[in-house]
């Protein structure tokens, strides 16, 4: 009798252990599978955010980046997207995102350079300098590093050093037209005529570049205004700048301002055209109101505001610009 009972007990123990091991295995597989899925989904969200960012869909990019950070609070990919979005919005929170990425990936040269560039955007020279100093010596031989060092030199008001560093960046990446633009702008800051002539020639050449023509034309206009060039020449530059499909609303305001100063016959027509275009865009409308306020046109602002949708007038920063108009009359 004892032997069958003992055998039954052993069978029960083995069965219990098997069930327990099976349950534990399911838990481990489920946990691992969930973790793998979260990692995969985080990667997918970062990819979507990057695609949205590149296509100019900033709100969608922000949503995807936040979803990646919800899945993994240490998602450096999500943090980089949030940093770039903040940089485009001129929001200092970008610096916090860049710092977090560098803390998580201290050996990443690209992220250290991105932190330096971001710091300079917000006037934090000390952080920019420290970030570049932390880059290993053997990782400093890239065009990106020399370009970042050049921007730091410009921030320190050292155009000679900036020109040398941008020159090295161009030696390593001779076809990078963004570096060419920064090099040309640096040349214009130097007192010597040969350097200025070199910068002007390069900017004129960059006006043929689809990606840099707007920035190059802005630089030529700014230099021409500083050097008190012929107003008609400046008008022509401003007209060309605002005609580019990629032109900013501020470029159009620049052209409008030139027309006003020249009492050009096209001024009223162009102002009316800009009012129509800005009426449904709060950011552009506020910029137009601010320009009008600067030029003692507060009454025109108030009169034009009566024709704008109340919903648009409530959106920031339109109320601030409108209040400024009332304060000036």
What's the CATH superfamily of the domain at 46-52 and 62-134, by name?
Answer: Tetratricopeptide repeat domain
The largest sheet is: none
Give the number of helices. Answer: 18
Shape: flat
What is the multimeric organization of the chains shown? single chain
- Report the order of strands and helices: HHHHHHHHHHHHHHHHHH
Explained architecture:
There is one protein chain. With 329 residues, the chain is an all-alpha fold. Among the domains are: 46-52 and 62-134, Tetratricopeptide repeat domain (Serine Threonine Protein Phosphatase 5, Tetratricopeptide repeat, Alpha Horseshoe), CATH 1.25.40.10; 279-329, no CATH class. The protein is 78% helix and 0% strand. It is built from 18 helices and no strands. The protein is flat and about 100 Å long. The model has no long low-confidence stretch (mean pLDDT 91).
Descriptors:
329 residues, mainly alpha, Serine Threonine Protein Phosphatase 5, Tetratricopeptide repeat, 18 helices, flat
What's this, in brief?
The chain is built from 18 helices and no strands.
Blueprint of the fold:
Elements: H1 2-54, H2 58-71, H3 76-88, H4 93-104, H5 109-121, H6 125-133, H7 143-155, H8 159-172, H9 177-188, H10 193-206, H11 213-226, H12 231-243, H13 249-261, H14 267-278, H15 282-294, H16 298-305, H17 310-313, H18 318-328
């Amino acid at each position: 009798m004892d032997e069958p009972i003992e055998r039954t007990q052993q069978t029960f123990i083995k069965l219990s252990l098997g069930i327990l091991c099976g349950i534990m295995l399911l838990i481990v597989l489920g946990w691992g599978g969930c973790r793998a899925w979260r990692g995969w989904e985080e990667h997918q969200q970062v990819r979507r955010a990057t695609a949205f960012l590149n296509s100019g869909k900033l709100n969608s990019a922000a949503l995807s980046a936040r979803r990646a950070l919800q899945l993994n609070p240490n998602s450096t990919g999500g943090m980089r997207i949030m940093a770039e979005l903040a940089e485009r919005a001129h929001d200092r929170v970008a610096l916090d995102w860049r710092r977090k990425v560098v803390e998580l990936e201290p050996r990443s040269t690209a992220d250290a350079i991105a932190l330096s560039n971001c710091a300079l955007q917000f006037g934090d020279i000390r952080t920019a300098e420290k970030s570049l100093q932390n880059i290993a010596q053997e990782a400093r031989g890239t065009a990106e590093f020399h370009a970042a060092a050049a921007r730091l030199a410009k921030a320190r008001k050292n155009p000679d050093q900036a020109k040398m560093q941008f020159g090295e960046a161009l030696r390593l990446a001779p076809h990078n037209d963004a570096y060419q633009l920064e090099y040309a702008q640096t040349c214009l800051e130097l007192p010597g005529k040969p350097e200025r002539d070199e910068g002007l020639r390069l900017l004129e050449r960059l006006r043929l570049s689809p990606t840099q023509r707007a920035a190059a034309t802005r630089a030529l206009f700014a230099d021409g205004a500083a050097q008190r060039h012929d107003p008609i020449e400046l008008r022509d530059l401003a007209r060309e700048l605002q005609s580019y499909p990629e032109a900013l609303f501020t470029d159009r305001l620049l052209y409008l301002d030139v027309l006003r100063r020249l009492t050009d016959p096209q001024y009223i027509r162009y102002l009316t055209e800009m009012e129509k275009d800005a009426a449904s865009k709060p950011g552009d409308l506020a910029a137009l109101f601010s320009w009008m306020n600067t030029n003692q046109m507060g009454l025109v602002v108030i009169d034009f505001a009566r024709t704008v949708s109340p919903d648009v007038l409530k959106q920031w920063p339109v109320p601030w610009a409108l209040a400024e108009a009332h304060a000036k009359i």
